[in-house]
Amino acid sequence: MTDRVTEVRVKPQELLLSLGGALVLDQHEESLPTRVFLDVLRSLGVSDDATRSVLTRLTERGLLTRQQDGRVVSYGLTDTSRKVLREGRDRVEAAEPFHQTSPDWTLLSFSLPETQRDVRSRLRSRLSWAGFGCLRDGLWVAPGRVDLDRIVAVGAEVEGLQIDGFVASPTPGTDVARFVRRAWDLPALRREHEAFLHRWERPLPRDGDPIALFTLLGAHWVRLLRLDPVLPEQYLGEDWPARRSASAHRAAFAALQPRARAEFTDLVRDARARR
Description:
By secondary structure, the chain is α+β, with helices and mostly antiparallel strands.
């Protein structure tokens, strides 16, 4: 494995979820031996101990099943993880993931007791994935009309959490560019796109492991999608790099997917044969 594969620093959990969505979901319904996950993440510079730790955490969160047959431990997707990965796949494979067509904005306000820090973190993560930026504490804004059902549903699960959301249009004279700059760090977002382009716009290494590269591509792409709120282009400048990022992802995805799927099937078959 060349250094080109490990240039992007991604958390082991993000790599495992990427692997699940890209090569396991709808391809391998049965549980996979632990050695499959160890082999893939080891080629991406993740230690076996770290991979086992993440597998355990994902199992505890209800995102993986765990089965043991003698000394062989296997992991598989749960109904919950399949639902989450399928919901994310629509945006992952969208033709124009950064093109905003709506002139409206979605506003959301929530209040939460300070004791519920774990819920606050989970809610903020869900808001970021949905494209929201924070205008001020407890007040979030997202471009376009956002389906709030899954976000508001969190409120029904947690005592003391209140969420209110509505769709609005800026009034005449509103400096939309100003609140865009306040809610989102545009220079940092540009750097994220440029980092993605630096890694994936170049020709892929001929000696690279297609499974590792495809897994890394997916994790890096999901991170970029999570960070980019899909803002209207008129507030971003003519040289905004999002369209190039989408083009680079399409090209790398098309080049890697067939080989990655074929070699992953071989890897799974070999791992099961050694059980």
